[in-house]
Amino acid sequence: MADAVGTQILVDDTRRAVFKFTNISDGTGETGVVKIDVSTLSSYLGEACTGVSIQRIDAITVGMGLNILWDATADVLVMSFGDAEFVSFDFSRFGGLINNAGAGKTGDVSFTTVGATAGDRYTVVLEVLKYY
User: Fold this and answer.
1) Which residue from 69, 53, 57, 68 is spatially nearest to 104, judged by alpha carbons?
2) What's the rounded Cα separation, in Å, for the pair 65 and 88?
């Protein structure tokens, strides 16, 4: 078996995108799973999206922790949540969380769960600004 995961794109326009991610774990968990693949986002005047900045995070974790990562050769931690948290962060007033990954930076965002057991779950809504 595998975790029951879902990805819903709520908005994908020329400047921003909003995503909703869910996971109900069977105990397997996730490791470095790409959740936002910038190459699949809508383009602007023929230019492909090459990266995003995180403007807003709304998340709830139940029973497992969650790490949000910038995808790279060595992933870079964006934010970490404990095993029973409800959080709401708005980073837009200073331009958002910028991808500071180094070598092998893809522009993508990935998730890794921490301590997942059967029945644990998360829901995350991410709002991002797109770069070209």
Assistant:
1) 69
2) 16
For residue 88 the two structure tokens come to: 């709401």
Contact 128, 107 (CB under 8 A): no
Among 80, 88, 76, 87, smallest CA distance to 64 is for 80
Tens-digit pLDDT profile for residues 74-124: 999 999 999 999 999 999 999 999 999 999 999 999 999 999 999 999 999
Bridge partners of 131, per DSSP, are: 51
CA-CA distance, 5 to 43, in Å (whole number)?
Answer: 26
Which residues lie below 8 Å from residue 52, measured CB to CB, with a gap of 6+? 17, 36, 38, 99, 107, 109, 128, 129, 130, 131
pTM over 0.70: yes
